[in-house]
Design goal:
The chain is of the alpha+beta class. The protein folds into 3 domains: 230 residues, P-loop containing nucleotide triphosphate hydrolases (Rossmann fold); 89 residues, Nucleic acid-binding proteins (OB fold (Dihydrolipoamide Acetyltransferase, E2P)), CATH 2.40.50.140; 110 residues, OB fold (Dihydrolipoamide Acetyltransferase, E2P). A hairpin with a 2-residue loop joins strand 9 and strand 10. The protein is globular, with a radius of gyration of 27 Å. It starts with 5 loop residues before the first strand and ends with a strand.
């Protein structure tokens, strides 16, 4: 990106609200005229990022540059940005014209100029001849257009939009998505958009910034984000996916679901554990098993308007989601093929739970704010710092929090074809990863324990 293309540069931005770090070292460049969407679940930090750009919040660390100059000390009303909120904040006692003209009147702009600009933005948002209407008489989509017009009339260099379509019904939301995209094309200014709706982000954006837990997970075009996710969170959050454990045997050779496949990925090394993503529409399904890479049995088949969504149990006991324009009878044996270019290989973020702990005595260790029995550690001293490791499938979860040494809740889940990979967030804010066959729901309260025989202790002084 050439220096002249950058309109906003966010550098190492961090923010803590209360006792929670909601943004953790965010860095991104935004180009002039670009439509950038910050996408992620509730609480991921996307709205906080927007509020920092707007100036409604001050960063704890880092800086925001606008056209090369630090704007951290500039109040919101002096920044060349305007914001459209989820709640439109229109003045109910003013008509459409006066709502849009309000800011210009405060600036004492001449009446003729106000008239000219109001009529221009009304035309932009498709609200010509509505200037005398009471805002309470407008539909949700019309109120949204008025809010956008009010933001545009000040001729901002950047338009900030904080989930502006969330209050609309589905059809109106779809219509407004098209109109926003057209509006951005006509205006040529920078749009910075916040949403939790994956489809909306893919439709509207030039660039998507996927966030989770205050960190950027991936930045890319909608096509890159969908077809080449960089980790399991992105693959699971953007569209539907089959996410599976695999092993990279060598360049262009990967194994998963107990079958070997050609792929196009290189540079992972040999015999390296990886995660594999295959989109359901990229699995070819056929009634004839001859020439298939592997076979399976159809477990369910549901028509979803354009395609059929099926779950197929493979000959090695894995369940795959498959989408196809043709239906296949439940219980029938089918052939399946996955092409090399449709396999996305990702590096594993972690291979086991690793914590820093402290020995209580030879058979007890303290970590994660709990004390656990462990295999005997002859010769270790009380208070000695140690590394604690526990395999994902060796963590015990209980329905009742009081049954565990620790308590927490199910924060995130990924189905991996024959088991669930779960992220548990403890009451103290620590993450624990669990592989399990048990079915949990996001938000379930759980007790947590680590069986003594499955805890591995390594004195840090020995490393």
């Amino acid at each position: 990106m050439a220096a002249s293309d950058k309109i906003i540069e966010i550098r190492h931005l961090s923010k803590t609200l209360g006792n929670k770090k909601v943004l953790d070292d965010i860095t991104i460049d935004i180009r002039k005229g670009e439509f950038v969407t910050f996408l992620g679940p509730s609480g991921c930090g996307k709205t906080t990022t927007l509020r920092l750009i707007a100036g409604f919040l001050a960063p704890d660390e880092g800086e925001i540059l606008f056209e090369g100059k630090d704007i951290s000390g500039i109040p919101p009303y002096k920044r060349p940005f305007n914001t459209v909120f989820q709640r439109y904040a229109l003045f109910p006692h003013l008509d459409v014209y006066d709502n849009i003209a309000f800011g210009l009147k405060l600036q004492k702009v001449p009446r003729e100029e106000i008239n000219k600009r109001v009529r221009r933005v009304l035309k932009m948002v498709g609200m010509t001849d509505y200037e005398d209407r009471d805002v309470d008489s407008l539909s949700g989509g019309q109120q949204q257009r008025v809010a956008i017009a009010r933001a545009l009339i000040n001729q901002p260099k950047v338009l900030l939009l904080d989930e502006p379509l969330a209050a609309l019904d589905l059809k109106m939301r779809k219509d407004m998505q098209i109109e926003l995209k057209e509006m951005h094309k006509k205006l040529g200014i920078t749009f910075i958009y916040v949403t939790h709706d994956q489809e909306e982000a893919l439709i509207l954006s030039d660039t998507v910034v996927v966030m989770n837990e205050g960190k950027i997970q991936q930045i890319g075009t909608p096509t890159d984000i969908y077809n080449e996710p960089e980790n399991c969170f992105v693959a699971d959050f953007i569209g539907e996916s089959n996410i599976l454990n695999g092993k990279m045997f060598a360049d262009r050779k990967v194994g998963f679901i107990y079958h070997d496949f050609d792929c196009i990925d290189e540079g992972f090394g040999e015999n390296v554990p990886v995660d594999v993503v295959v989109r359901p529409e990229d699995i070819y399904i056929m009634k004839n098993t001859e020439g298939a890479q592997f076979t399976g049995v159809v477990q369910s088949c549901v028509f979803q308007g354009v395609h059929y969504k099926m779950f197929v149990e493979t000959d090695t006991g894995y369940e795959l989601m498959v989408q196809d324009y043709n239906s296949f009878e439940v219980g029938s044996t089918v052939g399946l093929v996955i092409r090399p270019e449709d396999i996305q290989v990702m590096r594993k973020e972690r291979s086991l739970n690793t914590f820093e702990g402290e020995m209580v005595d030879e058979t007890h260790v303290r970590f994660l704010d709990g004390e656990f029995e462990c295999p005997r550690q002859p010769g270790v001293e009380k208070g000695q710092k140690v590394k604690v490791e526990v395999d994902f499938n060796r963590v015990d979860l209980y329905d009742h929090q009081e049954e565990g040494v620790l308590s927490g809740f199910i924060y995130f889940m990924i189905y991996k074809g024959n088991h669930y990979h779960i992220t548990v967030l403890t009451d103290e804010g620590h993450h624990i990863w669990v592989d399990t066959d048990d079915v949990w729901d996001k938000g379930d309260q759980v007790g947590i324990d680590f069986p003594a025989k499955h805890i591995k202790i390594t004195p840090l002084s020995d490393e």
